[in-house]
């Protein structure tokens, strides 16, 4: 077992770190989410969509590190859904992780379910969102984790903080869009607009659209909690004439650095300091998509306003400076600046050095036969040429209760065929197989996952998210991964600790972590179209030898019933 063969001191320090957090007073919080259809008007068009507590984005959860949060979700809508607490590790508690048909069945209309969200070492900004079909497009909100009692920030305490959520806006119903795409075989459309905190800004031509305004005082410092909740778009973000100092990513502190912009993938969060030190006035904040794919999204710029108190100066769109949509150099330059911070507020660095389990995954868009579709074969996506099929009983229930026939434990640990993944693949057979396959890990194993982008289909990058864990991004590279030469260049000294990773087009990324969270954990692309097409798999971590290293029992109140049971 990797954990016990290596890094014992680091592991022990980590246990002490968590024990200290637990010994601090942990509060228990209760939230009520009422989820129903509400009308919203944007782009001079009114539509009804599913939201929480009548708001878009939904209510913010604000707690302290190590707290426990109970969220009672009432489904007053027309179809089932689930909620996921993105980036919360949920130690030993996959029952409240949330992905539909992975750890639970959907909460049916007219029923409710209470999630128990257990925080551990997460600090800073995370978020919550629906984890069913495309419902997360409107069912989403921030999850802010403040320092624990008697704990400080590793930087000067900001004067205030502000959540910034980057979103995709469609004039049509989110669920209807993906249901139609899957039934016809065609790809879903690009968004009609992008939004900042539910506001579309002033670039789309509808006079009734609103713009998000953040009011600031001269010489004060603000902590921006930036969340990319977009459906299928990685994003650049900037504030005109102001520098951004990045201090955390995915609820873990990083070595601070300053940039004129940030690059952020769907699912990722970043904590950014900004000092209001420019001439008193109004300055645009702006976001636009990034794409290195042959099928890029619509290239719209969405605006907000960074507004000094008592300012009335006009805004100048020409002053907005963002990298262009396909500026891969800007994206990669930003990513290479992110390093783990050796501050006491972070858990001790614990990068596996001797690996027990290696998983090499080719990430692809593909095709599969579909006799009922207009487009046959239809567009699909896969990991190691397996396009994931969601079962009708959740995998956690099947695993915990030894129910056969729901999933298999034979997800391939390497591509079934090796080819020039990043080369010219015109004419290459892009058909994928289908299955509900999982990787099974022993408790404590040291795991390395290499995610290899391919040029099949439209190619392009992928934001891959692993539930239940934060992992170390030890290297990001171009071309095809070489398992002989590339590991020698891994960063094992200060790699960032994240939960969602950008896999670059025509490149690869290497991740490492210890499998010390028993349960059933989903891994998927956070481009919703790719996940819907099958770019998913499941990691199952077996129980350890003690109660403390084993899955908790399911909630006494029960789980949502699966359809037809």
What does this 3D model show about the protein?
With 565 residues, the protein is mainly β. 9% of the residues lie in helices and 37% in strands. It has six helices and 32 strands. The protein has helices at residues 2-5, 8-23, 174-184, 328-336, 395-400, 528-533, and strands at 28-42, 45-52, 61-64, 68-75, 83-86, 112-118, 124-130, 140-146, 160-169, 193-196, 212-216, 221-228, 234-239, 244-249, 252-259, 262-264, 269-275, 282-290, 302-308, 357-368, 378-383, 386-388, 433-435, 438-441, 446-453, 462-466, 471-478, 497-498, 500-503, 507-514, 519-525, 536-541. Strands 10-9-12-17-14-15 form a six-stranded mixed beta sheet, with no helix packed on it. The chain is globular and about 65 Å long. The model is unreliable at 7-11 (pLDDT under 50).
Short description:
The chain has helices at residues 2-5, 8-23, 174-184, 328-336, 395-400, 528-533, and strands at residues 28-42, 45-52, 61-64, 68-75, 83-86, 112-118, 124-130, 140-146, 160-169, 193-196, 212-216, 221-228, 234-239, 244-249, 252-259, 262-264, 269-275, 282-290, 302-308, 357-368, 378-383, 386-388, 433-435, 438-441, 446-453, 462-466, 471-478, 497-498, 500-503, 507-514, 519-525, 536-541. With 565 residues, the protein is mostly beta strands.
Q: Ranges with pLDDT <50 over ≥5 residues?
A: 7-11
Distance between the termini: 39 Å
Rg (C-alpha, Å): 22 Å
Strand order of the largest sheet: 10-9-12-17-14-15
Q: Shape from CA axes?
A: globular
Largest sheet: 6 strands, mixed
- Which quaternary structure do these chains form? single chain
Average pLDDT for all residues: 95
Strand content: 35-45%
Q: How many β-strands, per DSSP?
A: 32
**What proportion of the residues is helical, as a percent range?**
under 10%
Could you say which structural class the secondary elements and strand pairing correspond to? mainly beta
DSSP helical segment count: 6
């Amino acid at each position: 077992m990797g954990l016990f063969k290596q890094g014992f001191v680091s592991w022990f320090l980590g246990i002490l770190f968590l024990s200290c957090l637990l010994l601090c007073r942990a509060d228990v919080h209760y939230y009520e989410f009422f989820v129903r259809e509400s009308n919203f008007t944007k782009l001079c068009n009114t539509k009804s969509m599913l939201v929480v507590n009548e708001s878009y984005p939904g209510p913010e959860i604000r707690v302290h590190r190590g707290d426990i949060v109970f969220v009672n979700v009432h489904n007053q809508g027309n179809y089932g859904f689930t909620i996921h607490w993105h980036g919360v590790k949920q130690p030993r508690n996959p029952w409240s992780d949330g992905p539909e048909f992975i750890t639970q069945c959907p909460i049916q209309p007219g029923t409710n379910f209470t999630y128990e969200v257990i925080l551990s070492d997460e600090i800073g900004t995370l978020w919550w969102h629906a984890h069913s079909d495309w419902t997360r497009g409107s069912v989403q909100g921030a999850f802010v984790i403040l320092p624990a009692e008697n704990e400080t920030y590793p930087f000067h305490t900001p004067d205030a903080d502000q959540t910034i959520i980057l979103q995709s806006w469609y004039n049509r119903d989110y669920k209807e869009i993906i249901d139609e795409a899957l039934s016809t075989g065609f790809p879903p459309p690009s968004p009609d607009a992008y939004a900042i905190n539910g506001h579309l800004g002033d670039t789309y031509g509808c006079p009734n659209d609103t713009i998000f305004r953040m009011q600031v005082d001269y010489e004060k410092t603000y902590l921006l909690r930036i969340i990319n909740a977009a459906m299928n778009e990685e994003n650049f973000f900037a504030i005109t004439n102001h520098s951004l100092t990045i201090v955390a990513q995915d609820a873990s502190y990083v070595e601070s650095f300053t940039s004129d912009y940030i690059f952020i993938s769907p699912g990722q969060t970043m904590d950014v300091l900004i000092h209001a030190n420019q001439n008193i006035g109004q300055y645009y904040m702006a976001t636009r998509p990034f794409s290195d794919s042959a099928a890029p999204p619509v290239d719209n710029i969405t605006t907000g306003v960074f507004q000094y108190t008592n300012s009335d100066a006009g805004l100048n769109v020409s002053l907005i400076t963002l990298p262009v949509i396909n500026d891969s150099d800007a994206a990669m330059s930003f990513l290479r600046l992110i390093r783990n911070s050796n501050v006491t507020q972070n858990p001790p660095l614990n990068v596996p050095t001797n690996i027990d389990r290696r998983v090499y995954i080719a990430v692809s868009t593909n095709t599969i036969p579909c006799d009922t579709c207009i487009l046959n074969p239809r567009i699909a996506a896969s990991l190691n040429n397996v396009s994931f099929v969601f079962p009708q009983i959740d995998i956690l229930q099947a695993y915990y209760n030894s129910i056969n026939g729901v999933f298999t434990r034979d997800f391939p640990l390497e591509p079934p065929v090796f080819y020039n993944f990043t080369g010219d693949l015109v004419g290459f057979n892009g058909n994928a197989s289908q299955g509900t396959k999982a990787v099974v890990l022993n408790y404590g194993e040291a795991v390395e996952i290499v995610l290899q982008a391919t040029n099949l289909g439209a190619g392009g990058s992928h934001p891959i998210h692993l539930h239940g864990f934060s992992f170390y991004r030890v290297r990001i590279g171009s071309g095809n991964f070489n398992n002989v030469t590339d590991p020698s260049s891994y960063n094992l000294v200060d790699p960032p600790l994240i939960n969602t990773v950008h896999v670059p087009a025509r490149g690869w990324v290497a991740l490492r972590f210890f499998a010390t969270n028993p349960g059933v954990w989903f891994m998927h692309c956070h481009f919703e179209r790719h996940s819907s097409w099958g770019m998913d798999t499941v990691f199952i971590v077996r129980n350890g030898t003690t109660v403390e290293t084993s899955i908790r029992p399911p909630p006494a109140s029960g789980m949502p019933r699966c359809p037809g049971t």
